[in-house]
Write a structure and sequence with these properties.
Structural class: alpha/beta
Mean pLDDT: 86
Low-confidence stretches: 140-144
Radius of gyration: 24 Å
Distance between the termini: 33 Å
Strand order of the largest sheet: 2-4-5-8-6
Strand content: 25-35%
Shape: elongated
Helix content: 25-40%
């Protein structure tokens, strides 16, 4: 029972590493492509796959009343938040969420740090990212208390759109480090981040499988050998 379990665990880690490598290759390939304007209508699944990792430009106004902070984001070992601000695209009712970067948490974590947001029309430029849809959440962000919740555990686009009550694009713009559109620390994690760790875990699980199989064979051989003795 242990051998197939260890093999499956190793294969799972190997597949995670392969998926990360594929995403990194896609990002590297699209870095040289010209920037595209963020659509004013909500994109479908086919268009979303084309936009992934493309450089996107959008013009509009930040809406601070629906701004959120994504908790438990670290930068060089320091705890903090990612600042997510909706941008209402000019000439459209659709918003696109802009990740403006990392902000350090206060020593008293129950308090939310203060920060400024540009007013008026701004032009944002950055990389189109499709957030993960599977993550562990301790509780529903909308069930904690009534009213708009500023601090979220994860960026759940479906939950955000439901809570905000307006249409949003199914991607997030990670603000370029050179952009002057109100950004903070922007050292974005690469898609293949910690890929070597996944590979190490894969070989470790497979080593467990090989060791378990070898021990099983040795113990059974000795048991059978002892039974043949007078």
């Amino acid at each position: 029972m242990l051998v197939p379990l260890f093999i499956c665990a190793g294969q799972w880690q190997w597949n995670k590493a392969a998926s990360k490598a594929q995403l990194q290759a896609q990002l590297d390939a699209r870095r040289g492509e010209p920037a595209v304007e963020a659509p004013k209508t909500r994109v479908d699944a086919q268009s979303l796959s084309v936009l992934r990792y493309r450089e996107v430009v959008a013009t509009g106004r930040y809406e601070t009343e629906h701004q959120i902070l994504i908790d438990n984001r670290t930068q060089h070992g320091q705890a903090g938040y990612h600042v997510i601000t909706p941008l209402r695209i000019d000439g459209s009712e659709v918003r696109v969420l802009v990740n403006r970067g990392w902000l350090p948490a206060l020593a008293e974590h129950s308090r939310v740090p203060e920060f400024t947001t540009p007013t008026g029309t701004v032009e944002v430029s950055g990389t189109a990212i499709i957030p993960a849809t599977r993550f562990f959440t301790l509780a529903s962000v909308n069930a904690v208390k009534p009213g708009w919740q500023v601090v979220w555990q994860n960026l759940d686009l479906a939950a955000y759109a439901l809570a905000a009550g307006f249409p949003i694009q199914p991607f997030v713009i990670e603000l370029d480090a050179q952009s002057a559109a109100g950004g903070f620390v922007r050292e974005w994690r690469a898609p293949d981040d910690k890929r070597e760790i996944n590979l190490g875990y894969a070989f470790q699980w497979w080593a467990f499988a090989a060791t378990t199989a070898a021990l099983w064979l040795v113990l059974n051989f000795r048991r059978r050998g002892g039974a043949l003795r007078p």
